[in-house]
Amino acid sequence: MMMTRDDETANEGAASRAVHSRLRALIRRDELGVIGLAFTVGAAAGLFVAAITAAANLLHLNFFGAPHLSGLFRLETPLIALVPVLGGVLIGLSGIYVRKRRPLRPVDPIEANALRGGRMSLKDSLVITAQTITSNGFGASVGLEAAFTQLGSGFGSWLGGLFHLRRADMRTLVACGSAGAIGGAFGAPLTGAFYAFELILGAYTPFGLAPVGAAAIGGVLVCRLLGTGVEFVRPAEAASLISNLDLALLMLLGVLCAGFGIAIMRAVSLVESVFARSGVPRALQPCCGGLIVGGLALLTPQVLASGHRALFNLFSAGGPPISTIAAILLLKALASSVSIGSGFRGGLFFASLFLGGMMGKVFAAAVVSAAWLPAADVFVFTIVGMAAMGVAIVGGPLTMSFLALETTGDFPLSLVMLAVSAVVSVIVRRAFGYSFATWRLHLRGESIRSAQDVGWIRALTVAHLMRKDAGPVLATLPISEFVREHPFETAQWIALSDAAGRYAGLVFIPDALIANADPQASQNSLETLAVNRDVVLVPSMNIKDAAQIFEEAESECLVVVSDGGDRRVVGLLTESHLLRRYTEELDRAHRELSGEVWTVSP
């Protein structure tokens, strides 16, 4: 029998689906499969870093005449200061188009892992990446690291969805995308790995060590192969000798960086609120921001873009006077706040390093000028200030400590950096409570403070937990009649409703049986036994909020009423069942975090 072309195509499709199904099952069943995917994601993230960096540098070269804007000492012509305005126009127009075509707000890696089980849109990630390249390429004072991590993590989420991975594996692949991106961008695999643990996963996990480490190495290898990397710190010539007085001064520098970092995050919110109240259309706000940034660039081009070359020059011998560095510090902080607050896309990762480096150098100059203090090692103060400001704004004390170690090779200095980072982290957490990324989420109404997985709490709602067979009885029904009509009632609680069907209270059935034994009390209506008339749950409430209401009400059972406001009884929920399910979900989350899922069959 001859096979037709359609039959051959159908057989090839079936064979392809069978291979894909076997491969998917293998990866879900074996931890090595996830590690292989993680390396692939990290390598792809390294490729994205190279492509994004090349695109931004090409824009810099075409519009400003140099690939590294912050290395310029002046603009060739004042007209170049209008380039950020043009970038603002493009960002505004793209925002209009994106809001019409994709009305849902894009999700970043932290939000995806905290609330959505690692689910991200690759298309949204591509849009954010394009907008970030445009913002940075046209001179806005933002970094490319946000695009690196967004696209790397978005690809990881897409690949995980392709293989239908578990929730824990999806979150890990999202972290792997960021690990490969940051590791490749800085040529620092430990920095990339701990960036993923501290900021994208929200915790160090034994299970995540192998895949995240593989991804970070993959990103670094690809970037080195392509010749992409950020050189911004010269290696230490010798191990730093840090006295007790130096340590105390460095701690003070950390405190100053913490305060300055909080001020910058507040400034971004202030700029946003000023634009919101100004009446300027949303699409024109980036244009106005670009006008301000362009004006600042006329004073010093070092406020433009990320600040890579300016930070490298900061570590070089000589350089501008301290008064000039202090002025650039303030102008760069203003430019970054205006850029992000007006609507440009990008982050503050590298800007925070540049700002911290300048803060450290200014502080070292102040120490040197004090006759009663010993001479300060400017390099040490600059690198510590750089990392301390990074901790204050970005977060991740271990991330910044390993960045100092991998870029300088100075182990004693990295230990000091770890101590300073811990101090900065505590100060920012107690005084402010957020990193820049989680602060932005807070302003949008989210309550998360890290990337730890709390999405299951929001997904586990009262609607999933309640008994739906809890039909109410009339509150005016006599107790004796209720007992006669429900002689073998197995439930312990019954909901009451009035004549209009609205919730009217909750009755403990043993109380009704006791009252029925009294001939006089048995003639009373059920509403005389009703409790919790005003304390109710709604189906959309999550398990955490419901547990809080149970604790405040000090009740064993509560009624669930409809969300519409008509107080129609739709179910019952007991505290014991809620706590049991809460414990089960916590245990499941713990097993996923520790990797115990691989000890059982899928």
From TrEMBL:
Molecular function (GO) terms for this protein are: chloride channel activity
Q: Where in the cell is it found?
A: Membrane
**Which Pfam families does the entry mention?**
CBS, Voltage_CLC
Q: Any stretches that span the bilayer, and where are they?
A: 32-59, 79-98, 173-197, 203-226, 247-271, 283-299, 311-335, 347-372, 379-405, 411-432
Q: Which domain of life is it from?
A: Bacteria
- Domain CBS: where? 530-588
Q: Indicate how the chain sits in the lipid bilayer.
A: Multi-pass membrane protein
Q: Which InterPro entries does the record match to this protein?
A: CBS_dom, CBS_dom_sf, Cl-channel_core, ClC, ClC-type_chloride_channel
By its UniProt entry, which CDD domains does this protein fall under?
Voltage_gated_ClC (cd00400)
Q: Which UniProt keywords apply?
A: CBS domain, Chloride, Chloride channel, Ion channel, Ion transport, Membrane, Transmembrane, Transmembrane helix, Transport
**Would you tell me the Gene Ontology cellular component terms?**
chloride channel complex
Query: What protein am I looking at?
Result: Chloride channel protein, CIC family
What organism is the protein native to?
A: Methylocapsa palsarum
